[in-house]
Amino acid sequence: MYDVAVIGGGPAAMSAALNLKIRSKNFIILAGTDEATDLSKAPNIVNYLGINNISGKDLIQTFEKHLEEMGIQKKKEKAYNVLNMGEYFTINAGSNFYDAKTIVLATGKAKTTLIEGEEYYIGRGVGYCATCDGPLYRNKTVAIVSENREGEEEARFMGEICSKVYYLPLYKTIMLESNNIIVLKGKPLSVVGDGNKVTSLVTTEGDIDVDAVFFIRDVLPVSQLIDGIELEDGSIKVDKYMATNIPGVFACGDCTGKPFQIAKAVGEGNIAALSVAKYLDKILE
Ligand SMILES: Cc1cc2nc3c(=O)[nH]c(=O)nc-3n(C[C@H](O)[C@H](O)[C@H](O)COP(=O)(O)OP(=O)(O)OC[C@H]3O[C@@H](n4cnc5c(N)ncnc54)[C@H](O)[C@@H]3O)c2cc1C
Questions:
Q1: For position 113, what pLDDT does the model report?
Q2: Boundary-marking domain end, from 186, 216, 246
Q3: Domains identified in the chain, total number
Q4: Which of 49, 166, 171, 255 could in theory staple to 143 by disulfide, Cβ–Cβ 3.0 to 4.6 A?
Q5: Is there a contact between 203 and 187 (Cβ–Cβ < 8 Å)?
Q6: Residue 33's pLDDT is what?
Q7: Cβ–Cβ < 8 Å for 74, 29
Q8: DSSP states of 159-182
């Protein structure tokens, strides 16, 4: 059982981790599989105090070097779901499960735009982790809509157990079709069903009959990651201690809303870690 599970791999998560280490907490960082933080896209940063004129990539390296020096390691794993078990939380990271007393969410800009029908059919054929739910669709037809390469692995896995897999990459890829995997060009428009389960996916290139649709996104919809979390203007609602409405769950960085800036992410990561330390000390009293 960890004291804390930090979910995210950007500046907010790294700052939270650094401060948790200083406070001698036992924690895990699930940094995502691709580690592509928004920061890696920043060409030239001039507004981060003390480090002028630096690219996002170089700043990440600077942050990572600091973590390395402190003996902190990030796990290249994505959290798909956080279950509230009452006294603690269980995090589903695909093939691994972790238990932690508290959670720090640092997942970057919140994703809230779902396609029509997607939310209604969550758990009724719509999923976000094919490897987790795949066995439910043995010998069936599924579609995988992916924003990144992670989906290719999921498609190959599903190809082994499903009768047909439609793969819709929303990024440039040279992934070749194989056996029962069909790569399609269309963009998804809506998920359609009979009220109980998914029956088809409507795309810009036509409809496909499917039993399930998996969306592999850079950032999961927050409501899918953790049930019952309160949002405000599409971002996670926090108080000045970075506490969310769920006791033991804290959030920091872009996922709590504007301004989307590194200094804010780092500052909030610091506050979240200190608040977690205080919270843990209290539950131990
Ligand atoms: C082009 C560009 C230029 C920018 N320039 C500047 C600038 O000059 N100055 C400035 O202050 N800010 C700038 N920003 C904004 C800055 O990059 C962000 O504010 C900052 O990176 C936010 O940090 P974060 O840790 O909250 O989120 P992110 O950096 O987005 O990191 C979130 C991380 O969480 C991971 N993650 C998401 N979901 C999960 C999950 N379920 N499980 C595990 N991991 C997950 C992601 O893979 C990612 O690694 C720029 C952004 C962009 C896109």
A1: 75
A2: 216
A3: 2
A4: 166
A5: yes
A6: 79
A7: yes
A8: HHHSSEEEEEESS---PPPBTTEE
Q: How many other β-carbons are positioned within 10 Å of the β-carbon of residue 245?
A: 13
User: pTM for the complete prediction?
Assistant: 0.86
- Residue 29 falls inside a structural domain: yes
Nearest to 64 by CA among 53, 56, 72: 72
Residues with CB under 6 A from ligand 1: 7-13, 30-32, 35-39, 41-42, 45, 47, 78-79, 106-108, 219-220, 225, 253-254, 260-263, 265
Judge if 91 and 176 occupy the same domain.
no
At 179 the pLDDT is 80
Last residue of some domain: 216, 250, 269?
Answer: 216
Q: What's the domain range around 274?
A: 2-111+220-284
Structure tokens at 48: 């981060």
User: Which residue type occupies 84?
Assistant: N
Q: Are strands 198-203 and 206-209 parallel, antiparallel or unpaired?
A: antiparallel
Helix, coil or strand: residue 110:
coil
- Give every CB contact of residue 118 below 8 A, 6+ residues apart in sequence: 126, 190, 191, 213, 215
Amino acid at 213: V
- What CATH number has the domain bearing residue 100? 3.50.50.60
Tokens of 134: 């795949």
Give per-residue pLDDT as tens, 143-164.
999 988 889 989 999 999 999 9
Q: pLDDT (tens digit, 9 = 90+) per residue, 237-264? A: 999 999 999 999 999 999 999 999 999 9
260, 266, 271: residue to mutate for ligand 1 pocket, most atoms within 8 A of CB: 260
